[in-house]
Amino acid sequence: MALEIRQATSDQIDDIRDLTLRAYAKWVGVTPRKPRPMTADYQAAFSEHRFDCLSCDGVLIGLLETVAQDDELMVVNVAVHPAYQGRGHGVRLMRHAERLAHEADLKGTRLYTNKLMCENIALYERLGYRFEKETFHDQGTVAVHMVRPL
Fold it and tell me: Any idea where the N-acetyltransferase domain is (predicted)?
């Protein structure tokens, strides 16, 4: 099993969108509305954000979307295809985000996730992220903001 993380190219946008829809499908019905990554405009995001793709033997199995904000790297989206979840690929992508932040001489990484996505929050805590704040959004959603200094 050959794993590789490479920066995405624009011809992968449709595959990125498809993988994201599959990865987040389990949250539809759990959260009051579809998770934001499911409704994102990836064509527009691709011009403003960095996308890195995790491939296994040439097959896209995960992705990381990031953007530098001030002195931190924002993890906008981390997604793993359902058939490959639970095997450490999300951790691998999060560690890649930390390397990107370090290489860019940033202070750390940050992210936010829906408060109802408890298993994601638990994973981020295990990776060293700490709670920063909660923000309240439309349709009763609550975002948990987390940070990890380098």
Answer: 3-150
Q: What is the CA radius of gyration of the chain?
A: 15
Show the domain range for 44: 3-149
| Residue given tokens 């359902």 in the structure block | 82
Q: Which letter does DSSP use for residue 18 in this model?
A: H
Domain count of the chain?
A: 1
- The Cα–Cα gap between 74 and 68 comes to 6
pTM of the model: 0.94
Give the pLDDT confidence of 101-150 residue by residue, as tens digits: 999 999 999 999 989 888 999 999 999 999 999 988 776 788 999 999 99
Identity of the residue numbered 31: T
Using DSSP's 3-state secondary structure scheme, residue 113 falls into strand
Beta-carbon contacts of 125 under 8 Å, excluding residues fewer than 6 positions away, are: 146
Q: How many Å apart are CA 20 and CA 41, to the nearest integer?
A: 12
Burial class (CB in 10 A: 0-12, 13-18, 19+), 62: buried
Q: What is the CATH number of the domain that holds 72?
A: 3.40.630.30
Residue 40 has pLDDT above 80, yes or no: yes
